[in-house]
Design a protein that fits this description.
With 705 residues, the protein is an alpha/beta fold. The protein folds into 5 domains: 114 residues, DNA-binding pseudobarrel domain (At1g16640 B3 domain); 42 residues, no CATH class; 221 residues, Rossmann fold (3-Layer(aba) Sandwich), CATH 3.40.50.10810; 216 residues, Rossmann fold (3-Layer(aba) Sandwich), CATH 3.40.50; 79 residues, no CATH class. Helix content is 45%, strand content 15%. It is built from 28 helices and 19 strands. Strand 18, helix 24 and strand 19 form a beta-alpha-beta unit. The chain starts with 6 loop residues before the first strand and ends with a helix.
């Protein structure tokens, strides 16, 4: 049986039938006094031999609830009437310790079955004057001034007052997580959210702001606050695979955190701060290692992917050991209110009762998205879910003007494009992944380059033709196409860009986005030759160099020519004009580009110019993005959720790109390509409508406008 040297309070409490059946323990008078300084719905840590069990305290009804603790007692074979020692220590005011009347070996065996916290980080206040001895002296001073003769014990009253005072001190102080932040423009609703996470939710919360209101920033400030207070060390961030780089860029650019994106088990040993895709983390290659570790803070983005407790996603996150947990999603309800129950259960098990109790009390018998008692449910959710809407924050983004610039290629340019497409179509299914110096990925790259810039295509064809292991006829074809590119005059897109920059956008700071370094180099050279102030930005630069280039653009350069790495986490809202020189087939990348300038903090109208070269696949891409999912009209961040409603085979962006490539290869005529892309567009349209329906259902409970 565990022994403690610094016991402040100790009492044997009997287990009850009600607790062993439902996980609810009613407090007697003595225990109510002991719990007096805790808030209603607050999560309290109960510790058993170093393992932490979160317990939800219901102050209004004087009981605590924990289904995990109930299950623990059941596995130990304890019956009603068994007496458990409840201990509070001087050195650890936030937790209670339990000691069971069972053999240590049996207790350890049962505890090992639970994937709960093993390490117990001590609370370390960042303010020296809130140390235990100083706090005691201050409380004595307060007591002498305010205390009146009473029959109650001074020590017991002081004990409760002590923790109330400490909580008040921390809550009223400035957030240290905001100090020294130069690259984060934060808003009042975000600061309120951070305070609520820290002081009302005990670091475990569902952040459910509407899309575009800055959940990532809120999570980042919470993380920084805990790090500076030395309350966390090991941090795990789980996101969809498509967002790992974006999270990495945001944390580096805004908070100066270096989080590696882990894709190999050996990397888990190298860093205490980790970003991973959820799909990779739950795989057999990683899950065992991750579940054996103890994290202080876990953050899960797009947490609606945990809505079903039967899925591996849910079971994996539930099994992770963490003191603090943040779940981020703009759509906590999609098909059924039980999804919301499941998310809250991860944060605070038992706080909404059992699943059956929740169904009977809150879920409409016909429409499972609607609550029976919405106001009551809101009150129950108040300590676990934080939701900010645009109506409440009164934060509205300025208008976004979208211009579609149709580019008429010269006959020579169109001939190069058509010949390259015919070459790709002829060889796409003939080449293997690595044979003869050319593969399907190379052919896809050439196809994209053909619509971007014939000058950039020329350089790639020249380099490819130098490979020694090419078939002779393929080498001849590549040489001929490269020669045709060399003979081309200035491409039409280049001429149009120059006209925009010298006339309509003269004096404006403009971001030119392209997918390709080769196109970027050609654009830089062309614009510099016409005496324009240009700076480049690409993924091969160091972080220091990237920051230097952004500063140049902000201070004295008119134009930033950037590859898509500039769309990952960098704030460029000091500019308001963007030209998509070429359009990625991956819609997420297009949305990320837009999000660099049309975001919180932008005060001026934004202009987005999309080039579309007639007679090429770009015509169909624009129709797919603009008409089917209205990408250029939507709030940045909504696309990820729309894609979540697609059929499973199309949810991954690489599958979308592969499908578009197959349409180009299999269907020669533009009309056939249009019909096939129309089928893909119908799937996107269906997913978009499903998302809109979910938004409407959420209005009933969450009160969004």
């Amino acid at each position: 049986m565990e022994k403690f040297q610094d016991i402040a309070f100790e009492k044997e409490i009997p287990l009850t039938d009600h607790f062993l059946e439902n996980g609810i323990y009613q407090l007697d008078f003595d225990l109510r006094t002991l719990f007096a300084h805790f808030r209603n719905h607050q999560t309290i840590d109960f510790v058993i031999s170093g393992k932490v069990f979160p317990v939800t305290y219901r102050k209004d009804h004087a009981y605590f609830i924990s289904l995990e603790l109930k299950e623990m007692c059941q596995r130990l074979g304890l019956e009603a009437g068994a007496r458990v020692r409840l201990i509070r220590r001087h050195s650890d005011f936030q937790r209670f310790y339990l000691s069971f009347p069972v053999q240590d070996q049996r207790l350890e065996r049962v505890l090992n079955e639970f994937r709960m916290e093993a390490d117990l980080p001590r609370f370390q206040a960042s303010f020296d004057w809130v140390e235990e001895s100083v706090l005691s002296n201050r409380l004595d001073q307060v007591w002498k001034k305010t205390a009146k003769p009473t029959n109650n014990s001074l020590d017991s009253l002081k004990d409760s007052l002590r923790y109330r005072f400490l909580h008040q001190v921390l809550e009223e102080c400035d957030l240290v997580g905001l100090q020294g932040l130069q690259s984060v423009e934060h808003f009042p609703h975000q600061i309120r959210t951070v305070r609520k996470v820290l002081f009302d939710c005990a670091g475990r919360a569902l952040l459910a702001d509407e899309v575009g209101l800055g959940k990532t920033v809120e999570a980042g400030i919470v993380m920084r606050e805990y790090l500076l207070r030395k309350q966390v060390h090991r941090i795990l961030i789980l996101t969809p695979a498509s967002l790992t780089s974006q999270w990495q860029g945001e944390l580096k650019g805004k908070f100066e955190f270096d989080f590696p994106v882990v894709d190999h088990p050996s990397q888990l040993e190298d860093s205490a701060h980790i970003i991973m895709s959820l799909d990779l983390a739950k795989s057999k290659f990683f899950s065992k290692k991750l579940l054996s570790q103890n994290f202080d803070l876990v953050i899960v983005d797009e947490a609606h992917k945990l809505k079903n407790r039967k899925t591996l996603n849910y079971r994996f996150v539930k099994a992770l050991s963490s003191q603090f947990l943040l779940l981020l999603t703009a759509t906590p309800i999609q098909n059924d209110l039980i999804e919301l129950y499941n998310l809250v259960h991860l944060i605070s098990p038992g706080s909404l009762g059992t699943m059956e109790q929740f169904r009977k009390r809150f879920i409409h018998p016909v429409n499972k998205k609607l609550p029976i008692n919405p106001e009551l449910l809101k009150r129950h959710l108040a300590s676990h879910m934080i939701r900010n809407s645009r109506m409440e924050t009164q934060l509205q983004l300025p208008p976004r003007r979208v211009v579609l610039k149709e580019v008429d290629p010269s006959p020579q340019e169109l001939e190069v494009y058509n010949r390259l497409t015919a070459f790709v179509r002829e060889n796409y299914y003939l080449v293997s992944r690595s044979a003869q110096g050319i593969n399907q990925l190379t052919l896809m790259l050439l196809q994209k380059l053909a619509a971007s810039s014939p000058w950039a295509l020329r350089d790639s064809l020249d380099n490819l033709a130098q490979k020694e292991d090419l078939f002779h006829d393929i080498r001849l074809t590549l040489d001929e196409m490269a020669r045709e590119c060399h003979e081309l005059a200035t491409p039409t897109k280049f001429q149009i860009t120059l006209k925009y920059l010298q006339e309509e956008l003269k004096g404006e700071k403009v971001i030119l986005f392209t997918q390709f370094r080769s196109t970027q180099k050609q654009l830089m050279k062309f614009l510099e030759n016409h005496q324009l102030e240009v700076v480049d930005f690409h993924g091969e630069m160091t972080t220091k160099k990237k920051n230097k280039q952004i500063d140049k653009f902000r201070q004295d350069k008119q134009i930033l020519v950037s590859t898509d790495c500039g769309a990952e986490g960098w704030n460029l809202q000091f500019a308001r004009c963007m030209i998509n020189f070429d359009l990625p087939w991956n819609p997420m990348k297009v949305e990320q580009r837009i999000g660099r300038i049309h975001r919180l903090g932008q005060t001026r109208d934004v202009t987005i110019i999309n080039y579309c070269m007639k007679g090429t696949i770009e015509e169909h891409i624009v129709e797919l993005l603009g008409q089917k999912i209205r990408l250029f009209e939507r709030v940045v961040g909504e696309l990820e959720m729309i894609l979540g409603y697609m059929d499973s085979e199309w949810r991954k962006e690489e599958n979308l790109e592969k499908k578009i490539m197959e349409i180009i290869v299999k269907h020669a005529s533009p009309e056939e390509q249009r019909k096939e892309l129309e089928k893909l567009g119908k799937g996107l349209l269906k997913a978009s409508r499903a998302y809109e329906q979910v938004k409407k259902a959420q209005n009933v409970l969450l009160g969004d406008a």
